[in-house]
Structures are given as C-alpha cells and as structure tokens.
Amino acid sequence: MKAIALLRYLPVDDPQCLVDVDLPMPRAEGHDLLVEVKAVSVNPVDAKVRAPKDKAETTPRVIGYDAAGIVSAVGPDVTLFKPGDEVWYAGDITRTGTNQQYHLVDARIAGRKPASLTFAEAAAMPLTTITAWEAMFDRLGIDPDGADKGQSILLIGGAGGVGSIAIQLARRAGLTVIATASRPDTISWVRDLGASHVVNHREDLVAQVRGLGFRHVDHIAIFNDMRHWAACVELIRPQGGIVAIDDTDLPMPMGGMKTKAASLHWEFIFARPMHQTPDMIEQHRLLNRVAGLVDAGEIRTTLTRTLSPINAATMREAHAAVESGRMIGKIVVEGF
Fold it and tell me: Is the full-model pTM beyond 0.90?
C-alpha cells in the first residue's frame, strides 16, 4: 500500500521531510471503516505536526487529517456504513493519518460524502467544517438554524479554511458577519462567501469595527493566532463569548474578560475522538447534516487549488503552500 510518511522532522524544502513508502494493508476492527482514499487536503495542523523538531521516528509516521473516499471494509461493530459508501472525514490525530491508499477511521466521526461534490471538493471540507461548526454552535452556543438571527460575530482569519466555512454557516444562522481580510483577493473571497463587513487585520481592529457602527460584537471566533487578543477583549460585548482554535505563548490578560463576565472557549476538533467522549458520534451527525446543506446548495466547497497525484513531491508542495500564510480556502491532493 502506498503512503507518504516522515521519519525526521525537517523543513518543507528538504526532500526528506516527506517521503514515499510502502506499508502493510490495514484491517478494520471494532468501529473502524477501511477507506480507499481518493483525495486528501492539507491543513495548518499538518504543517505543525511535520514542523522541524529534534525528534526522529523509528518507523514511518503517516500524517494527514482530511480525506474523502470509498468504504472498502467495515469492522464488526459498524452499523452506520457498508462497503461501497462514499465518505468524508477529518480523522483522529492520535491515529495514523490519511495520507495513504487505505485508511482506518472510526465510523462515528465519518459522514456520508455530499453527492454533489467530487472527492477533491469534498476532501477540502471536513476538518474546517467540524472546527467551524463546533466553535460557533457547540462552544459559543449559537443556534445554527436562526434562533439568534441578527446577532453579530467577528471572524478573525476569514479567508482561511475554517473562516471560509464559518462565514457560510454564520450567514445561514442569520448572523451579521464581520470577517478579517487584508488583500484584494481575500477581501473579494470573504465578501463572495457572505461576509456583511470586512476589516483589515493588519490595522486597528477596534477602530474599524466601531467605525462600522458596532460598539461591541456578540461573538468572536479567532481562527488564527492570538495576536489580536486585546482587541477581542475590548470588542466582545458584556456576557459575550470568544472561541479560539490555536494554542499560544502570547500573553492573554483576563481582567477585561472578568469585568465583562465574558467567556473564553477552546475548540479542538480532535477532542472527541482523542478522548473517546460519549458524544463523539456528533461529528458523524454534523458531517451528514452539512452534506445535506451542500447538496441543497446552501454551503459550498472551499477548494481553491488541486494537486495530483498523492505522493511525497506533491504533498511537500501542498505543505509549502499552507506554510506560506497566503492561502485562500483549501488545497487538496488527489489520486494515488
């Protein structure tokens, strides 16, 4: 079985940072699906896991946290899928990754692939979709179907993978969306996805948001690093909520949060599968629900670039694109 793996943690321009390997065929047990992988996407988490560090693997390590493919076999405890079903999922960071021809994933965190999408279009979405959905609807408690219509949300990192999905989900929920973007192409992208307002994250966020007529915003989602923490604390309404997806070593003073009785939430897509939480099947349900929204034309794929085939050379190219910090939407690698 073909796979792309690493043995050492090296810069992306080193040809040995990701290499082609042959691995034994996995076998589905328990709740597992054995999936024939048709396409994978590359996310910032891939680059972070692969980033240079003083460490080496004794056996090839396969990473990758997004896939779309066809179920080849199922474990004895699986009731949600059967061989031949088309699926999409983001996997589990504690298990072998998706960058291989056949991959094992717990059926409870996989969903049916949207019928209207190609495998590449579908592979662009699971990790970012789960992250955006959980961040806004599970962590911040926003109603996905419009009960909070008219409330405002500031999305920091609007043109990235998670932000691109979050804009669409937030608009569908009836929120007024303020998204950050700084280049003409990213500004156009977030507006096209449905952002009501765009502010430049390279300039004074507080002044810009208040210039739009918002003294405070009801919700804030930080979909990149925490450099804008002080601005977020200033802008969040009393008793509002902020959700973040990236850990940080930057200072995060909490005095302003306390006096506003504002809440801080962390979203980590792998928390449910990593800890085998009793509700991990919610990711299956979430992906199925979004598949329906995609097929109904309410949510669109965020794929902006496709590479082929799935091998070490194209995977290194994809990692370099993600590390550039200039990505709009998502990059996918398809076809072994």
Answer: yes
